Amino acid sequence: MDLTTGNPETGRPIADYALLSDRRCAALVSSDGSIDWFCRPRFDSPAVYGRLLDPEAGHWSIRPAGPFHHERSYVGETFVLRTVFTTDTGTAHLIDALALGPSFEAGTGVRLRLGSRAPRATLRVLECTAGEVEIDFAFRPRPEFGLVRPIFTTLPGGILATGGPVRFVLTTPIRLDFGDDGATARITLRAGEKLRFVTQSVGIADELPGTWKPEAVDAALEETIQGWQRWSDAHPTWDGPLPHLVRRSFLVLEALRYQPTGAIVAAPTTSLPEAVGGSRNWDYRYAWIRDASFTIQALAAAGSTEEAIEFFEFITRAAAQYHPENPLQIMFGVGGEHDLSEREITHLSGWRGSRPVRVGNAAWLQPQLDVYGELIDAAWHLAPHLRRLDATARRFLTDVADAAADQWGRPDQGIWEVRGDPRHYTYSKLMCWVALDRAVKHVELVEVEPRDALIFGRDQFSSEGLDPEDFNPLKLTPGWAAARDRIREAIETYAWKPEIGAFGAAFDGDDLDAAVLLLPAVGFLPGDDPRVVSTVDAIAERLVDPRGLVLRYEHGIDGLDGEEGAFVICTFWLAQALAMTGRVERAREVFEEAAACANDLGLMSEEVDTGTGELLGNFPQAFSHIGLINAAVAIRDAERARG
């Protein structure tokens, strides 16, 4: 492959990056050997290398000094990256990994959780395999999103970088030159020569780690390869479509799972934009309740029951409070934090000038009623494994069901976290129906019997064009089952739009929303219901770009300036819905169109530029990989059903 990866000064293509993970944090490595994004010690910590968002925000690169070609791949089913550089004079291999630590307890042989003993070390091994290669080395950490330029001093076997809240120890076998711009060197590597580099970062008051001996680096690298491969081997093989991409998606979900708590971040990056130069730039380094049911279905397909339970337990523990007058918080920090206040990092120029760069996410304050359904649906999928739910979790699930019954009639910001006026979104009502449907069917998951609830009040249907009297506003409906049935009646009456032959985005208006493709997936209507079929057809006609990829909704309804790309998971939802309506061949076609959005390593971002086909949005995006898995399951099941 020719090196046509773009200029890092102007924003390298998102698809050019590879993911490294030790299940506490993540790094993004470019195809020319530069770590351009890295947050320590957690996924949501300030970046110490941030060139992804600004050319001056830090990186660590090891690359040939002159022109070269490259090829890259992961070592087996791992997140250990091998990049092969070929120049006119020779060939060099670069191996990159975040060390996982041991897989088994020394002495006892007890198996450890993947990454639980991670030494918080970045391993980089460079070997010349033919001829000779001139190498440029540049180590430029910039803590706190590029604010700090450390001072470098020498250590036995390495160097120390000091400045700001973190210190870095770099193990290096070569002499480095120090300057205001970092630690650099140019060396010539000949066939058979191997160089091993390690960085570890610690807090300003922590004891410094020692430098590493070569045999320790090799052992840590082998531990990391074996750890990922053992995790993968412990899970069933995939016998459905596109096995390589599905298996890689399983691995991505594990890589984005914060080891100490089981939280899964939506993505390891912030502020990669939904449109180049636009302002739709959000921080996705947090765990959303919305992901719970989709993620648990995907983990179940991977045979990852333990991982699914850990994620569910994290969500229920982090969210374990309920105030009837306030909707449930929709997202949390990876340690369970509630306050995710949003701020702008004004000194960063943004990827290709896309500003502002944001840290935190103001959506934590939004009312989004769909989360009730996603949470209880997650419990429903895990029901066979949750017989011993503790009293706190059972009490909380009871409160969640009550909240769905109490609040379903209110307008909200919807699944897409619209920053405009709240509406009566169809998908939000649908997921409140899911919450109550599952609660009624699995009352053993909750603490008390269903209670009477005031379903809606006179002021709750205030969207323009709706008459509150249509909703029988003073009616009291006893119990969860009756509330569920009333939601169904409202959706079938007010969300169905005969004039467009589809369920609309909201009770008011005739715009479309790709989220309603999930009507058959959650069991609200069967796939062969004529209204489902015509809704799928309407979305396939009105919400697609020239490549056949699906947009979330029609432009101009979200309260934000500018446009966005096609949303990858929505295209997988279309494939899933087509499979459930019996159109399996077409489902396969759409599925493969969406899967083609992955880069050469099988990683997918949030969106795709409708004009250029370039990846957009935070990367890699858990939602996209979840969509791929669940669509693959639907297609496999539909094909089996047809024999």
Overall mean confidence score, pLDDT: 90
Shape: globular
Secondary structure class reads alpha+beta
What separation lies between the terminal Cα atoms? 41 Å
State the total count of DSSP E strands: 24
**If helices are DSSP runs of H or I spanning 4 or more residues, what is the number of helices?**
13
- Proportion of helical residues: 25-40%
Low-confidence stretches: 1-6, 448-465, 468-478
Residue share in β-strands: 15-25%
Protein model, in words:
- There is one protein chain.
- This protein is an alpha+beta fold and 643 residues long.
- It contains 13 helices and 24 strands.
- The protein has helices spanning 143-146, 214-233, 243-255, 291-301, 305-318, 370-381, 391-407, 426-441, 479-495, 530-542, 568-580, 584-595, 622-642; strands at residues 18-21, 26-29, 34-39, 47-49, 59-64, 69-74, 81-86, 90-98, 121-140, 151-155, 158-163, 166-171, 177-179, 182-190, 194-203, 287-288, 331-332, 343-344, 358-359, 496-497, 502-503, 566-567, 607-608, 615-616.
- The strands form five sheets. The chain has a 15-stranded antiparallel sheet that branches. Strands 22-23-24 form a three-stranded antiparallel sheet. The protein has a two-stranded antiparallel ribbon with strand order 16-17.
- Strand 13 and strand 14 form a beta hairpin.
